[in-house]
Amino acid sequence: MLGWLISAAAPWLIHLWTRRRYRRTPWAAMDYLLAALRETQPRLRLEEWTLLAIRSALIVVVVLALAEPFQTPQLLAQLTGQRVHRILVLDASLSMGYQLPQQSRWALAKQLAAQLIRRSAAGDSFSLILMADPPQVMVGTPVFDQTEMLRELEELRLRHTSADLPATVECLERVLEAASHHVAQLERTEVYFFTDLGRVGWVPQFPQPEDQQRFQQRFSRLAHQARLILIDLGQPAASNVAVTQLRLLEPYSAAGQTIHIEAILQSFGQEQPAQPVELWVNGQLAKKTIVHLPPDKPVPVVLECLADLPGQYLLEIRTSGDLLPQDNRRFAVRNVKPVFRILCVDGTPSGAWSGRLEGAADFLALALQPAQQATAALPLQPEIVPENALPERTLADYDCIFLCNVGQLTRSEVRLLDNYLQRGGGLVFFLGDRVQPEAYNRLLAGTETPEHRILPARLGQIVSQSPAGLDPLEYRHPILWAFRGEQRAGLLTSPIFQYFQLQPIAHSKAQVVLTLSNGDPLIIEEPIGQGRVILVATSADTRWNAMPVWPSYVPLIQEITAYAISGPRRQAELRVGQSIGATVPATEAVGAVRLTPPEGQPVELRPRLEAGSLSWNYTETFWSGFYVAEYPSPLNRQDVFAVNPDPTESDLTKLSEAQLRQLWGPEVPFEYQTELESLGPPPPTALPPQRLTQFFLHVALGLVVLESIFAWRMGKTRD
Amino acid sequence: MEPNRQKYFDPRVLARLKGLVLRARRIVEGYMTGLHRSPYRGFSIEFAEHREYAPGDDLRYVDWKVFARTDKFYLKQFEAETNLVCYLVVDASRSMSFQSSLAPWSKWEHAQALAAALAYLVLAQQDSVGLVTFDHTIRTFVRPGSHPSHLKEILTGLEQIQPEGKTQMAQILHELAERFVRRGLVLILSDFFDNLEELIRALAHFRHRRHDVILMQVLDRAEEEFPFQQLTLFEGLEVPQRVLADTRALRAAYVRHFQSALRQLQRGCREHGIEYVRLRTDRPVDAALRTFLSTRKVK
Question: Quick check: bond before A142 cis, omega within 30?
Answer without folding.
Answer: no
